[in-house]
Amino acid sequence: MTTEARYSLYHPKWYRHPVSVWWWLSSWRFTKFVLRELTSVPVAIFSLLTLWQVRSLANGPEAYARFEAWMSTPLAIALNLLIFVAVLFHAQTWFHLAPKAMEVRLSGKRVPDLLIIVSNYIGWLVVSAVVAWLWLGR
Amino acid sequence: MADTITVSVSRYRPEQESEPTFQDYDVPLRDDWAILDALNHIKDAVDGSLSYRWSCRMGVCGSCGMMVNGEPTLTCAAFLSKYAPGPVRVEPLRYFPIVRDLVVDITSFMTKLKKVKPWIVREDEKPLSEGEYRQSPDELDTYKRYSMCINCLLCYSACPVIGLEPSFIGPAATALAQRYNLDSRDQGAAERLSILSQDDGMWQCTFVGECSEVCPKDVDPAGAIQRYKLTGAANWFKTMLPWASK
Questions:
Q1: Which residues span the domain enclosing B192?
Q2: Do B116 and B81 fall into the same domain?
Q3: Fewest Cβ atoms nearer than 10 Å: which of A72, A105, B64, B143?
Q4: Are both B54 and B145 inside the same structural domain?
């Protein structure tokens, strides 16, 4: 041991690793988590777009035509594509996390995780089918 | 297969260096050796100055958790051959202050654990003459998973929230709170909920889910926290109802 000890016997000199701001790039699982959290931004943008759509609808045919014209610009299409991908990713990741947040018990036995995930997907398909039927059946 | 493997061990000797450095050791690559056996070999035959914690060698005591190639790992339960041809990087558990080499200070966890009252809380004790508190297999099954925790702290090293917000009560402490909440003999759920609903409690969790991935006992702390959030939210909602007792 050197005599230049910078610690005293009863107070060990602890070392703390600093946490980098780029910690979420250190593993794909962390990156995926941050991406999942970031999908909330496109979801929020989509909500704003929907509010704008409802407002345009309330303001009459001219306002709605302006809304539709903007929605068919390349920028709006690109934005909607981004939102679509983000929402798919968001839904998929949360469906797979759902069994962790809810423990369903039927007659004392735990319902298997896979069943909860699959029922989420089935619910999604049913809602999508109803929306598609309403839209295409016009 | 090569007959040796390089183990790159993080060394921190506060009297010599101001930050951790790596030291490489070549150890025999034996099929029946875990990382912990390699460390024991180094300590016994190569370099007696290496410091690390271990005890049972069979995944029960929870002392030998370390970062192996950057992953929180129970070193007695990870075979060396899995990391061949190497090198294997062994570091102390992440986010804890390093005392020396692979030894970390876990005081923060001990304080958090005590906060959640991880014991059976009774408001009314039965007299001894009435016998024991009986429990059915189904009642045992509701909390058994959480009772498997060995306090190895791998979940704390897996949790980025712990790194960013060291005061967060963390995965194992919440899972252990849940272990007692779900116990049919316990009456302390309300007390624990008020502790875990505070700023440093369960709401700090952003559901990264890594704690459950690294858990060697399949405790699923991430699940425990999310379910606890559900309980907390439901309880808050009940207090908001007009006929709720304030």
A1: 107-240
A2: no
A3: A72
A4: no
Residues B13-25, mean pLDDT to the nearest whole number = 92
Q: What residues of B are in contact with residue A33 (Cβ under 8 Å)?
A: 160, 206, 208-209
Output the DSSP codes for B90-135.
Answer: EEPPTTSPEEETTEE--HHHHHHHHHT--S---SSPPPGGG-----
pLDDT, one tens digit per residue, over A90-132 is 989 889 888 888 778 777 777 888 999 999 999 999 999 999 9
Question: At B40, which CATH number?
Answer: 3.10.20.30
Higher pLDDT, B48 or B138: B48
Domains by residue range for chain A, with CATH: 23-136 (1.20.1300.10)
Q: Which residues of B touch A (CB under 8 A)?
A: 12, 14-16, 18-20, 70, 94-95, 97-100, 105, 138, 141, 160, 163-164, 206-210, 212-213, 220, 222-223, 226-227, 229-230
In this structure, is residue B245 part of a structural domain? no
Residues B193 and B171 in one domain: yes
Contact between B99 and A12 using a beta-carbon 8 Å cutoff: yes
| CA–CA dist B178, A133 (Å, integer) | 45
Among the listed residues B92, B213, B77, B76, the one whose alpha carbon sits nearest the alpha carbon of residue B155: B213
Strand, coil or helix: A19: coil
Report pTM. Answer: 0.87
For residue B11, what are the CA distances in angstroms to B48, B145, B172?
13, 36, 27
Q: How confident is the model at residue B133 (pLDDT cuts 50, 70, 90)?
A: very high
Q: Is residue B182 part of a domain?
A: yes
- Write the DSSP symbol of residue A81: H
B222 touches B209 (CB < 8 A)? yes
Neighbouring CB atoms inside 10 A of A120's CB total: 17
* Same-domain status, B119 and B19: no
Q: List, for residues B200-241, the tens digit of each pLDDT value.
A: 999 999 999 999 999 999 999 999 999 899 889 998 888 888
Cα distance between residue A79 and residue B18, in whole Å: 50
Residue at which a domain ends, from B61, B79, B104: B104
pLDDT at A3: 44
Last residue of one domain, picked from the residues B83, B104, B125: B104
* Cβ atoms B22, B9 nearer than 8 A: yes
ipTM: 0.81
Shared domain for B140 and B73, answered yes or no, is no
